[in-house]
Description:
Elements: E1 3-7, E2 18-21, E3 43-44, H1 52-60, H2 64-79, H3 81-93, E4 99-103, H4 112-122
Parallel strand pairs: 1-4, 2-3, 2-4
Helix pairs in contact: 1-2, 3-4
Amino acid sequence: MSIRIVRLGTPRAHGEGLRIGTVRRPPRGVPKTEFASQDWYDVWYPNLAPSAETMKLGQEAETPAQWNAFMRKYKVEMAEADASRSLDLLAALSHSTALSVGCYCEDESRCHRSLLRALLAERGADIAAN
Length: 130
C-alpha cells in the first residue's frame, strides 16, 4: 500500500485506491455526482489546498524568488495544527491503505502537490513511484 501524488482528472492507476482532491474549488462544469466517475476525486479535502491568497502567489509566480515565496507561505499553512495532523494521518494511512492526493495543475513542479509530496515524505509516508 502507498500514497500516490496525481493530477486530478487523469485516468486512475491500477490499485490507486481512494483519490483525495486537495484543491480549493471543485472542477467547473462537472456535476458533483460525476466527480469520481470522471477521475477527478472521490473525496474533496480542501484542508490541504493553499489558501486563496497563497494560491494566487503560486499562480502569479514568474521568477524563482516568487515561487520560493509561494512555497514558504504554503509550508507555513501546512504547519498549522489541522493541516499538520491531516498530513500525519495520510502518512500513517499510506502504510496500510492505497490512496492518492492531487491537484489540477499540469506541471507538478509548479504545483502545491510537489510540496505535498515532500511534506508527506518528511512524515515517513510510503509514496508510490509515478
